[in-house]
Design brief:
The chain is α/β, with parallel strands linked by helices. Helix content is about 50%, strand content about 15%. The protein folds into two domains: about 1-35; about 40-135, Rossmann fold (3-Layer(aba) Sandwich), CATH 3.40.50.
Length: about 140
Amino acid sequence: MSTGRQKSFKASVRANNQAYAQYKQEKDSHMNYVPIVPIIVCLCGSTRFSETFHEANLRETLAGKIVLSIGCDFKSDSDLEIAGQLTEEDKKRLDELHLRKIDLADEVLILNVGGYIGVSTAREAAYAKLHGKRIRWLEDV
């Protein structure tokens, strides 16, 4: 899909999400709640907290959200066994891919366990802010 078509499609999706959002508290003529488009949330944080990613993914999914998360856990033996040894180029490519997930998301949830925010996570939070994404934090900042 060309960049122009992607922007047009994303604008259409956002407009659709906003239109549905205004019906969130309204009921139809049969007194049923009108369904809304699920919020898309992207999880950001250090892969050293893989269990926290898993817990947040479950919590957000059960809350009815579509969850975008890390695709590779650098600290997981099983992920490294499947992926092999990752090069710096691989890590850069995966970091860029995660920014694209933020582009798709309506909001990001920063998993700042114990207040920890690494360089990559800080960059992702700044990117999300720059692109007007709602930012939530696991722990108060």
